[in-house]
Amino acid sequence: MKTHKSLIVIVILVIGTLLVGCENTNDPKYNPPADHTVSQGGYMHKSGLNQPLTNCVSCHGNDLRGGNTGVSCFECHGTKW
Ligand code: HEC
Ligand code: HEC
Description:
Blueprint: H1 2-26, E1 38-40, E2 43-45, H2 52-55, H3 57-60, H4 74-77
The site of one heme C (HEC) has 16 residues, from strand 2 and helix 4.
């Protein structure tokens, strides 16, 4: 009985992951460069995302509001940094 229940949970999780995966490949919000390899909630971030004021300002702007990429960190995060 116990094994049966956890199997169902695993199946649901796998199906959920697959659905989210498809959504992302079919309808990406932006078209990030290939070096954006860290998926966060389905959105591709570049590595070093925890130090954005060092690693992301060169493209996303000194204030992280988009710069020459047009993608502001704050459109998804609020004013965090
Ligand atoms: C060399 C330039 C460059 C650097 C450095 C850079 N980005 Fe980006 N980023 C881009 C471009 C270009 C896009 C896509 C813009 C578009 O599609 O309109 C983008 C898009 C994104 C997106 C949206 C992705 C999606 O799937 O919707 C996120 C999130 C992001 N970048 C996070 C980061 C983070 C975090 C860093 C720093 C660790 C970073 N970027 C550093 C150029 C850069
Ligand atoms: C298109 C939406 C989107 C954009 C633009 C975006 N992010 Fe994110 N980011 C997310 C989502 C969704 C998560 C995962 C859920 C969460 O933790 O908020 C996330 C998670 C993160 C995390 C890890 C969790 C946390 O909150 O500390 C960091 C760090 C981060 N993003 C940094 C950035 C930086 C820096 C930029 C701009 C260069 C950026 N993000 C742009 C959607 C986005």
